[in-house]
Design a protein that fits this description.
The structure is a single chain. This protein is an alpha+beta fold. The protein has helices spanning 7-20, 71-80, 132-140, 197-206, 259-269, 320-329, and strands at 2-6, 32-38, 41-47, 51-58, 60-63, 65-70, 85-91, 94-99, 106-109, 128-131, 157-163, 166-172, 176-183, 193-196, 212-218, 221-226, 229-234, 253-258, 279-285, 288-293, 301-306, 314-319, 334-339, 350-351, 356-361, 366-370. It has an 8-stranded antiparallel β-sheet with strand order 6-2-3-4-17-16-15-10. It has an 8-stranded antiparallel β-sheet with strand order 14-11-12-13-26-25-23-18. Helix 1 (7-20) runs antiparallel to helix 2.
Length: 375
């Protein structure tokens, strides 16, 4: 096998492959990429056995062939080589990589391609088109809220469903939930799917903001294509919780606060929070939100910022991570917290103990639900 390729074009593809492959020893085939040189194109494949990546770039082929090479070392060679053409050739198990502009030869040992896992084919998958911007927004609004509890594996991915012309993504870890609904899509029906976060975060990072993605959900797999790239992933098996029961309805009270003010105040007051507990107190009175880090062995902090609220004094304890994560993806100047108080507390400072909705103002097509903590 022998071909010549452009260094910069190759780096873009190998960088994505690095995100996919399992970080194992060089002896593991899953730390390798498969390269196939034929028909004046180079096909590159990488997998961790669950998530799969395929791409193709034009190259000048002198001799067709296929092999696998250690991805990390190949990337190191590319990143330290100058821009321009690089020659790639193989004899027996030795691959020689020669930057044309430098008098240096790199030699890598390869493993035969028949050891590389089967990647499957998307040839007969029924794809549908979605705007890339919308799909990435759905991922961004949900993926951070998945559970990391492997005992509840069905909550370690993002739930993706279709209902009429509405596509929904939901993620939850049992104490918080993020949900986004996008309407107006005429796409074929597909079975509800629980998508692993790894493939979603890779798509979020690498998919373009403009144009469409091609998506296919079939059997136990999802396929996503854009440009010269295709990702696929096994789906997570299991029954996703009935998320609709978690989303509170008929909330009658709310506060609105400037997002930048809240982010800055949280950054300061949480310095003193015990990270094992992650509790921050929201104490709300007319026109004022006071953030308080509960006293600990380290100390305490509090800060007041203005808010739009006119009612009885109320307070709630929240996991500050469950607040700061949504703030990172809410793209609006102001943020609203919606909640109810117990009737029994109507004549004194009320403690919020039921689910709170966090959203942007004006309201978008997403919501974030947080369960308050005990004091």
């Amino acid at each position: 096998m022998k071909f010549t390729f452009d260094r910069d074009a190759m780096i873009k593809e190998i960088a994505i492959a690095q995100e996919i492959i399992t970080n194992k020893s060089p002896a593991s085939i899953l730390s390798n990429i498969l390269v196939i040189a034929e028909n004046n194109a180079l096909t590159i494949r990488a997998t961790d056995s669950t998530v799969k990546f395929t791409t193709s770039i034009p190259v000048d082929i002198q001799q067709e062939g296929r092999t696998t090479i250690y991805c990390d070392k190949f990337m190191n060679i590319l990143s330290t080589s100058p821009s321009g053409d690089i020659e790639f050739s193989q004899e027996d198990i030795i691959v020689t990589i020669k930057p044309v502009a430098k008098k240096i030869n790199f030699k890598l040992k390869s493993q035969t391609s028949d050891k590389f896992p089967e990647m499957g084919s998307s040839e007969n998958v029924p794809f549908f088109e979605l705007p890339s911007k919308d799909f990435k927004e759905m991922i961004k609004q949900t993926v951070f809220a998945v559970s990391d509890d492997r005992n509840r594996f069905f909550m370690t991915g993002v739930y993706f469903i279709k209902n009429g012309d509405t596509l929904t993504m939901v993620a939850t870890d049992g104490r918080r939930l993020s949900c986004v609904n996008k309407t107006g899509f005429s796409v074929p029906d597909f079975q509800p799917a629980i998508i692993p976060t790894k493939v979603l975060t890779t798509i979020l990072k690498n998919a373009p903001d403009e144009g469409n993605l091609s998506i296919g959900v079939v059997d136990k797999s999802i396929f996503v294509k854009f440009g010269n790239v295709e990702f696929s992933s096994n789906l997570i098996e299991g029954q996703f919780p009935n998320y609709q029961k978690v989303i509170p309805e008929n909330l009658t009270m709310s506060i609105m606060v400037n997002k930048a003010d809240l982010e800055a105040a949280l950054k300061r007051t949480t310095i003193m929070v015990d990270k094992k507990v992650s509790r921050i107190i929201f104490r709300i009175s007319s026109g004022v939100l006071k953030l308080i880090s509960p006293e600990s062995d380290i100390g305490t902090a509090d800060e007041e910022i203005p808010c739009r609220y006119d009612g009885q004094d109320i307070s709630m304890a929240l996991n500050f991570t469950y607040v700061t994560d949504p703030l990172k993806v809410i793209d609006s100047e102001n943020v609203v917290f919606e909640f109810n108080i117990n009737d029994a507390q109507s004549n004194e400072e009320a403690s919020i103990t039921k689910a709170v909705i966090v959203r942007g103002e004006p309201a978008g097509d997403y919501i974030h639900v947080i369960m308050p903590m005990n004091y």
